[in-house]
């Protein structure tokens, strides 16, 4: 030990840390005492450890884990700044997503949705040509446009009518960080062969709960409130959802699209 060593109390005063924080950093191996008196157990810190102590405190104020801080402490200052800016960008993106969901839930506070016209209908068995892909909301519109064009081209090449309505089936949650999968389909009537990634399948005769989606609620995340409203309606009617929900373009009553839930027959 030299004259440059400070007792823990003086080191706390120099760094404006609490005794609890100093013990925690020592236990985690982030800031261990430079010297511990074997007889008294007094802990001494080097004056040169003060900048590290202040840096740890700042990183803790960001809410970073001890493990993440341990990694950052060993980086050069420039590399540390790059890591922190990357982390901040991710935090901002996550906050934006959370904001969207909060706004959608706030919009959904009135589950009655007086602007929605939810109804039940019977639908005959339908043959579709479709393409399926794991895609997030960010890439959804591009995938829809590409798949629709390719399916209609394939139907036309097969000598079939290719002007049927498009449906988009969400086989799992589709958000900015959940990627479905999503299936884009076009109805068809007549013999058609599948291709490498276009499949043919038959949707059985069914009952559907549906609603036209108002133009001001068609975009993510507000459209989630429409899905929630339909699910609430289905529950109140004592019905059971039996398959993935989907959207039909164009919708009824001049709506951009309908949201549809197949329910128990």
UniProtKB/TrEMBL annotation:
SMART domains: HTH_MERR. GO terms for molecular function: DNA binding. It comes from the Bacteria. Keywords: DNA-binding. Residues 14-75 form the HTH merR-type domain. Pfam families: MerR_1. Coiled coil: none annotated. PANTHER family: MERR FAMILY REGULATORY PROTEIN, REDOX-CYCLING DRUG-SENSING TRANSCRIPTIONAL ACTIVATOR SOXR. This is DNA-binding transcriptional MerR regulator. It comes from Phyllobacterium ifriqiyense.
């Amino acid at each position: 030990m030299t004259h440059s060593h400070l007792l823990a109390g003086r080191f706390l005063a120099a760094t404006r840390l609490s005794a609890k924080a100093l013990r925690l950093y020592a236990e985690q191996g982030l800031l261990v005492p430079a010297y511990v008196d074997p007889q008294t157990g007094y802990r001494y810190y080097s004056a040169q450890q003060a900048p590290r102590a202040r840096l740890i405190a700042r990183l803790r104020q960001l809410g970073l884990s001890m493990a993440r801080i341990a990694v950052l402490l060993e980086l050069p200052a420039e590399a540390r700044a790059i890591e922190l800016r990357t982390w901040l960008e991710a935090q901002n993106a996550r906050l934006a997503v959370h904001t969207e969901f909060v706004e959608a839930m706030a919009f959904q506070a009135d589950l009655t949705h007086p602007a929605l016209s939810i109804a039940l209908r019977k639908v005959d068995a339908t043959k579709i040509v479709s393409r399926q892909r794991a895609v997030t909301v960010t890439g959804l519109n591009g995938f829809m446009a590409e798949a629709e064009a390719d399916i209609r081209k394939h139907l036309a090449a097969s000598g079939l009518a290719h002007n049927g309505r498009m449906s988009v089936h969400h086989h799992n949650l589709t958000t900015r960080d959940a990627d479905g999968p999503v299936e884009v389909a076009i109805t068809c009537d007549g013999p058609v062969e599948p291709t490498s990634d276009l499949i043919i399948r038959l949707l059985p005769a069914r009952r559907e709960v549906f609603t036209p989606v108002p133009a001001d609620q068609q975009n993510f995340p507000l459209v989630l409130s429409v899905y929630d409203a339909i699910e609430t309606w289905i529950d109140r009617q004592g019905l059971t959802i039996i398959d993935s929900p989907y959207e039909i373009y164009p919708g009824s009553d001049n709506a951009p699209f309908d949201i549809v839930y197949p329910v128990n027959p």
